[in-house]
Specification:
The chain is an all-beta fold. It has a domain of 71 residues. The chain contains no helices and seven strands. The protein has a four-stranded antiparallel β-sheet with strand order 1-2-3-4, with no helix packed on it. Strands 5-6-7 form a three-stranded antiparallel β-sheet, with no helix packed on it. A hairpin with a 5-residue loop joins strand 6 and strand 7. The chain is flat. 19% of the residues are buried.
């Protein structure tokens, strides 16, 4: 068991999907979340704009932001799909529109 990078503690992670973000053959993790329905004293957990936990091997992960993309709102689900034979992801947000994102190679 190893601690994840501190950035994963900024808000709630509500869903994650395994990807190969840097094409090194190691499974990386795309994460997103947020939770607005907290009590007044604690406030909203809304500091997560999505990120990738890049697998460095031996159970070690490094956090990377999404470089120009912000998964705002309360993300509830991320699903992998294929569009014109290219990988894409549908991001479902609570009380908000769907987002479709595609990795940049």
């Amino acid at each position: 068991m190893k601690a994840l990078p501190w950035q994963t503690q900024l808000s709630t992670i509500r869903d994650a999907v395994v990807i190969d973000a840097n094409h090194d053959g190691l499974p990386d993790i795309l994460t997103a979340g947020n939770f607005y329905d907290n009590n007044i004293g604690l406030g909203r957990y809304d500091a997560d704009y999505g990120g990738i936990l890049v697998n460095k091997g031996s159970g070690n992960f490094e956090y990377q932001g999404l470089n120009g993309l912000a998964l705002t709102g309360q993300v509830r689900h991320i699903k992998s799909i294929s569009i014109a034979n290219k990988q894409a992801y549908v991001v479902a947000r609570n009380n908000d529109s769907l987002m479709v994102i595609t990795p940049v190679k």
